[in-house]
Structure formats: C-alpha cells, structure tokens
C-alpha cells in the first residue's frame, strides 16, 4: 500500500504492507473530543454500488478488511442499522491483542460496543450479538417502540437506549446518548439507509470510503439512502491510500 494524500516522503513510494500500528496512526480520531465524533466506513464500486447480491463483501479486499478491523479497533462503539445486522450476520466485536495497549491508554474497554439502531426491534435477540458480547450491546430506538420487543431486548442482556420521541431514532439525540455513556469515538458501517439519516441530520463528521476497482451494473443501493439534501454538504479529502487498484479515501466535513 502507498500513500497518495497527504503528500509526504512516503507518497507514491514503496508499495508495501502497512502494519496495524501504522494504519491505526493513519486513522486516529481527533484528540480531546468533547462530544461524539461519528465516522462512517463504507465501500463502493466504480459505478456507485454499495453492495453486490445484497452484501458488501464481494466489493472488498484483504486490505479493506484490515482497515475495517483497524477502524473497529479504534472505536468506542460501532453504530449499525438493524437491516445490516440481519443481512451481514453481525456478531459481537472481539478484543484484539494488536489494539489492547492503544485502547487501554485511551481509557477504552477491550472491544467496541455494538449499538444497533432499530424502530421496530425486529431482531433475533437469541443471537450471540445480544447474548454473548464482550461488551454489552446497545439497542437505540424510539419511545414508541413495541414494549414487548423492548422487554425481549433487555431480557437478552442488551441495553435499550431511547433516543427519539416516536418509533424511530433522532440521530443527534442518539449520538448525545452515546457520548453521555463515554462512547465518543463512533464508527458506523451502515447500512445505506442509516448512513443517509446520519448525513441528512448533519451529524456525520468523517467518511472513510473504499473505492473498489470493480463494476457491478445492476440497481444496487448507493452508500446512502433516503431523501436528498436540499443543498449538498461538502466534505474535504484528508487522506488517500492505494493498493492493487483499491483507493482508501478519507473525507471530513468542512
């Protein structure tokens, strides 16, 4: 892998495998966060598809998965939509020795919490994500969520966090609720509908986008879904890495 942006002594230099420490330094969160910092990690084909046959994995690569693991290793919590939990077969985040010292120095637990966003709570609460996590899973929902499903979630061991007055979740309120629990370094892995809600609410601080050198054709979703913004929001590139035709880009909101 080589760095294309920002321009440094390593830019366009030797194409080599980066260590996890180098990746962690490259993707470090801002220092001294007062509130939540929300970072998204997504992959897209050259023609804008976020999925192939309903899953993101066919667009990925080994290095993309190493970056995926690094971003998880840096996060306090991973925020994910219920549909993505169902489609991608989410499991609890695991502790990784490679990040143990870094997490301890940052005052973090052994692994990030998984925070699932769901209005209906139509989830299988018997899955390991809820019954066997190293760090308790959170379920973000609205005040009008079905109470029988709330009880099922709590019975499984999950912590239910009400972050909306209706059935759904209000994104700014959800981020405040997580920050109040000490979960400020946030990572979302989608899906597109959830990322669209975050972007439309103006709470997305950073986008880590892997541009896959593949064409899919078809009518797959983009990385965001939902109503369009009245005025497009501008992000600025902060880094670009490249390996085997994959571009690993990072943008921050201006």
UniProtKB/TrEMBL annotation:
**Which superkingdom is the protein from?**
Bacteria
Q: What is this protein called?
A: Pyrimidine reductase family protein
């Amino acid at each position: 892998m080589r760095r294309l942006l920002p321009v440094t002594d390593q830019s366009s230099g030797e194409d080599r495998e980066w260590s996890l420490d180098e990746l962690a330094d490259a993707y470090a969160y801002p220092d001294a966060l007062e509130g939540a910092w929300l970072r998204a990690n997504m992959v897209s084909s050259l023609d804008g598809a976020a999925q192939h046959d309903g899953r993101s994995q066919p667009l990925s690569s080994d290095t993309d998965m190493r970056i995926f693991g690094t971003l998880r290793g840096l996060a306090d919590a991973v925020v994910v939509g219920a549909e993505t939990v169902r489609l991608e077969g989410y499991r609890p985040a695991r502790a990784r020795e490679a990040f143990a010292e870094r997490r301890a120095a940052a005052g973090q637990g052994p692994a990030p919490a998984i925070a699932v966003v769901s209005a209906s709570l139509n989830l299988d609460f018997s899955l390991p994500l809820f019954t066997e996590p190293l760090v308790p899973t959170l379920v973000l929902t609205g005040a009008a969520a079905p109470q029988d499903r709330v009880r099922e979630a709590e019975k499984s061991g999950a912590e239910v966090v009400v972050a909306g007055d209706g059935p759904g979740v209000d994104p700014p309120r959800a981020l405040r609720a997580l920050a109040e629990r000490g979960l400020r370094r946030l990572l979302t892995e989608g899906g597109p509908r959830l990322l669209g809600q975050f972007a439309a609410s103006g709470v997305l601080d950073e986008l880590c986008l892997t541009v896959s050198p593949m064409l899919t054709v078809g009518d797959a979703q983009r990385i965001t879904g939902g109503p369009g913004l009245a005025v497009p929001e501008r992000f600025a590139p902060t880094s670009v890495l490249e390996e085997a035709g994959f571009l690993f880009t990072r943008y921050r909101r201006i």
